[in-house]
Amino acid sequence: MSADPASAPDDTDGLDLDGEGGPRPVIGDVVVVVDIGGTKMAVGLMTLQGELLDRDQVPVDHRLSADALFNSLHTVVNSQMARARDHHRMRPIAVGVGCAGPISLHAETVSPINIHVWRDYPLRERLVGATSLPVYADLDAKALALAEGWLGGAQGKESFLAMVVGTGIGGGIVLNGQLLNGAEGNAGHVGHIIVEANGRRCPCGSKGCLEAEASGAAIEAITGRPPSEPTYEIMQRTGKLVGRAAASVCNLLDLDLVVVGGSVALGFGATFFNSAQEALDEHSKIAYARGARITPVRLGDRGPLVGAGAVAIRGLHRARREARAKK
Ligand SMILES: [Zn+2]
Description:
The chain is an alpha/beta fold. Helices cover about 35% and strands about 20% of the residues.
């Protein structure tokens, strides 16, 4: 009989040598990142340095009830959390969410315009219940602004506008190092800047909004073709209108950089960006805004999830600062 504890098989510094899939040592922390759009919900794992380790997604099934839709998201979140521990040996410490708007402040409730069953849906609270982790959430375009300022095309910039030109059009503004919120958290929503005085009716109720003239949905309504099959004219017109709106924001807020992502802008490429820059040059004549640049986002399709991660990391820092202040 072996009575020598030194030879016992559990003396392995916790390494999983028994082949039973027992607890393995954790080598770092990750945040679970969630991006909620009108057509799909993406979930991933991000290190605190901004590296995406894993990702998965589930389509938004518009036939589902509000809670059934949440359950489909919960399933993917659960599976990513399990992969964090079992596959990456990482400990999930928080959840970060970027969600299509409108939202209420800090995204306590969300009402994504293209997810009709979620109206004032308590997404944050539901995720806290589902994961037992702290959950930090914000508007998707604001999350993207954080990501581009942290690791992307606006790195090191104190003030800039980030825009998403996709099915819809959104934006986020960083001014003097602070991401703007506004009263309810929707600041920076450039989609409702008026770009055509007597333009098309916008879903918001107004007329001639950028969203009603240049979003993917608008392009499809105007041309009868999906924005993935654009004509040269439509790429040029879309760029021109986005540049016009960007100029208004640069003039208003003393900005010299606009970074633009989203499937429509990135899909239209150089034609879009050249024409946007031309319109921006044409309309930002006041001295402080002259020379403002409009460029593609640099994080590509990682942007939304890295943005959700940036929201989580900002939330963790704030919570730590508040805890210290209370001591
Ligand atoms: Zn509008």
